Amino acid sequence: MNAVIKQHLIDPEICIRCNTCEEACPIDAVTHDDNNYVVNAEICNGCLHCVSPCPTGAIDNWRMVANVYSLDEQFAWQDLPEQAPIKIEAADALEDDVAALLSHAHQGLGGKPVAAASAATPEINLFNRARPAKASVRGNYRLTDADAEADIRHIILDFGEIPFPVLEGQSIGVIPPGIDAQGKPHAIRLYSIASPRDGEKPGANNLALTVKRVPGGICSDYLCDLPKGAQLDVTGPFGATFLMPNDPNAHILMICTGTGSAPFRGFTERRRRAMPDAPGHLHLYFGARRPEELPYFGPLQKIPASLLTQRLCFSRVPEQPRTYVQDRIREDGAQIARLLSDANTHVYICGLRGMETGVDEAFADACRHAGLDWQALKPELRGSGRYHVETY
Amino acid sequence: MLDLMNVDYTTKIPNNVDLASDRQVLKALEGWHPGYIDWWKDMGPDGFQDSLVYLRTAVSVDPKGWAKFDYVKMPEYRWGVLLAPQEADRKVNFGQHMGEPAWQEVPGEYRAMLRRLIVIQGDTEPASVEQQRFLGKTAPSLYDMRNLFQVNVEEGRHLWAMVYLLQKYFGRDGREEADELLRRRSGDADSPRMLGAFNEATPDWLSFFMFTFFTDRDGKMQLESLAQSGFDPLSRTCRFMLTEEAHHMFVGETGVGRTIQRTCEAMIAAGIDDPNDVARVRALGVIDLPTVQKKMNLHYSLSLDLFGSEISTNAANFYNAGLKGRFGETKIDDDHRLTDATYKVAKMVNGEITMVDEPSLTALNMRLRDDYTLDCFKGVERWNKIIEKTGVKFRLELPHTAFHRHIGEFKHTHTTPSGIILDEATWAGQRDNYLPSGADGDFITSLMQPVTEPGAYAGWIAPPKMGIDNKPGEFEYVQIHV
Q1: A87-102 pLDDT per residue, tens
Q2: Nearest C-alpha of chain B: how many angstroms from A210?
Q3: Overall pTM surpassing 0.95 (yes/no)
Q4: A-chain residue closest to B151, CA distance
């Protein structure tokens, strides 16, 4: 599939050629000839500055297109073409490389991913490699202790005037500058968004990432070394299934290791801000080597138990037995089984691929002890959009 | 902190000019405010002062805060003082002061000239509200009624904009002029509005649409040239007014467009091929295209008069002084002083209409009028496209600029709409073929029956393609009885 973008267009039948949009556009993406006013897809960043001043509504037209309408095509229009049939529903991404990355990450699900019924409809692929969004670094903080082996960072990206609407659980793509050994541009890397939909800071047009420096990792080195104020190219947002349910009755069981905690930070913060008294409860099983290496260990201590039940598991604390997330799940088996059989429960697993089997077995054990069959339950949960896996 | 983008609603008068710390001007405006409200209640939309109207209000002058929609009673509309953001290091861009920093205060030597410009512009704003005050009662739909009221409250705000400049920069003289703006009345025998077209009646909705298309477009051209002004507060005021003025162009263009759309559809449905078969077309309850053409002839020619004489030393002086520029001044590639340039002007020479080279400086009115004509022409062509699409064979044409003029070169000349000179007697005989007759007016009036059911439209006009603020067809744009 070619990269599909949402192209901003002006309806020539409704437009009165008043020049308001051209005047309003801060980056000169609107232009005109004697016939029509048109939007240059190469320049437009979808900031919507032109939309509310338009007296006619002609400006508020969008088409999903694989090949953008050129200026000359638009100049020649007498009327706006209909939306050509393009299958976009339920796609995680509209670019082959990104879609492949996400499909790989969802493999552990063992079936077709389905979004939670109450999840909001996500925007996807607003920006792609050909037309990335320019973000700037608002902050770049190390989360892990100075003596910890892992360098995990909390990076805040600001989009300024560019609308970049996201939902908890979605990812963005980062394009490291430069070319690889074969002389090709570097591949896009995906990072889960660690902040809620209304921004790292409520109401701000920004988002947070949790990035671990991977030895020899081109993109993670690039990101981890970005100073405050640096600009970078971002694509996305991506992901249409690993999304937080909006239903306040939803119990959310979140299981993660390391930077897999990113989406769950977004989920938790969303609940805390938008529905602190929701009847549904959040449960977090979070594994790391040591507390010093567990991202957001400090902030987690401040979250009230009424909102979130935390089970932190450490595998490398001296003189303590190695504990993994599956061990804690087994310990809590009776409650886990109760949750899994509750129609309001949604399960999310995110982190290293290696955790999948252990968690799956722990679920099976918990179910067996409660007289349930996990192998039968899992497809049911998955099919109803209540079981999600994103691992790497 | 002074926030130039967001509007300060803490004072009685919403503004982005920090009135709160400009006590003297705030006091003057607050003193003027009750008189304005009285004027609005006396001369504003008749019979709808208590209705809730779905209006757009600016909460800031940046694009994102520009259009906030909500229901409001018109007398409670937040009229305010809104200027486009100040451009850093803006210069005077034409005339003898070109290159100097733009003025933030009135230059003493141009005080009288500037005041005159502002008063003339200011006088047109309340005038059109007065002209349109009875139209609400015959609105073809709630959608159209809402658009009328939006135009009205914005004209009211434009008056505020001009009054602010008068009171802030012209002291006692300015305050007196501001009061005069509320005293004159459109069409009043003793105390009329200053310009002719603003004393004509707007008796029906087609007139209103024509007025907003042709006459408000003159306003747009005037504002465009004042937006070039070296007097920065005037420039910033006019720049923001232009954004609102675009809505008025929209109401006019789509209003006429929807009228001819409906006429053509009705003709096709009834199998009428001849657009000039006026009686049969009128029997369908729609406005025949030849009458639309006559209305155009009238409103276009009246609006041309607003540009003043083709040759004008006043216009040259305004330009030289850096007070009023040309349309798109900064985009024109020349010396912006016009010392030796010439411009072709249509004049009567030996009884014939002839193009004569005149100094560009004195021909500035003619030039602005030409820009206006081109703008009108493009709009008329879009109307012709509507007709063409339906398959009806008819073309609307802008009349010649010499047709039916009362100001300038052709005020003593009669011509046909195509510009052929006529003697007095022939003109008198033909007049009703060129301009709306009493009978035409009576017919149009007979169609002006109000339609107030949400989503319904009078039979002579097609519904719009798109709602205001993306609202669905059934939306109740005006809650008449609250």
Answers
A1: 555 567 777 788 888 8
A2: 31
A3: no
A4: A55
